[in-house]
Amino acid sequence: MAFVGSLTFVGLARIGAMAVLLTLPGAVARGEATHAPTASQPSQNAHAPEANRATDVIEPRRQPMTFTWHPAPKHSCIGDCRDWIEAVGVITSDTPALFEKIANGHDLSSATVVLNSGGGSVLDAIALGRVWRAAGLHTTVGHAVTSEGPNGKTRTIKPNAYCESMCVFLLLAGESRFIPNEAHVRVHQIWMGDRASDAKAAAYAAQDLMIVQRDVGRLAKYTFDMGGTGDLLSLALSVPPWEPLHELTRAELRLSNLVTDEAVAEHAPARATGAQATTALTSAQKPVQERLPKTDAVVKSTKTAEAAPPTGGAALTPEQ
């Protein structure tokens, strides 16, 4: 894939000359639509319904996660091009179903997910990550920028994006994982989402501690299943919610097995080449799931991966 022209994968088919993009909890989501009048293969968007243009000013990373499918430009690719999926926002209980909607009918093994996200629900991220690994998807971190071109609107991948909290564990789900030097990959502890903003002053019951311990166990199993290391868990679980998130260094990215294409990450060219995928987006609004903190407009970063509420004592399946 190419970030502004030449983001390439070693041992992975190249996505030449195309453009790509992730967020955090908030009130904005988007209605599903297919718009690209000048493109023979239009991009497809999967978003929650109910449009509200007034909320467009909210930073995309602070909204519930949305997905947009961008087909590779068939006539301008260099080498073996791949389709890409723009994944932007916070992971909520709606996210797995939205991904299934956008992925339906596509060959996922030939696609790369480009993440720009502030994290979200632990259990929903784990569920989605297992779907991605089973489908053979590849992952990276990037930020999509829209610009006007001779054929209409284009989306260009910029590497200075964020993958924080549970987004890091979604990134780990990729069959192949590329992290550009300009990307920010940050980790911290999971916590009760409704108490993370003032974690020290909050009150906790034994049930709350049980929930966090349970979800730490599920996250640990998932991490090892995806090929991650104990170092990733150790780094994340050492940072409480009242401290700034820890940004992983290149050495820590390698140590945690988050990077599979390090040689390319260190030498990816910065100049743009070739054509870019076209897309058009619509906007919408939908209330955030109950276990995410709410405000009337923007939901502040909780600096937490969140621990889910009790499941009623249901036994875990081997995949959980």
Automatic annotation (TrEMBL):
Bias-annotated ranges (Polar residues): 37-46, 275-286
Annotated stretches, region: Disordered: 33-59, 269-320
Regions of compositional bias (Low complexity) in chain numbering: 304-320
Database matches in InterPro entries: ClpP/crotonase-like_dom_sf
Protein name stated in the entry: Periplasmic protein-like protein
Lineage of the species this protein comes from: Bacteria, Pseudomonadati, Pseudomonadota, Alphaproteobacteria, Hyphomicrobiales
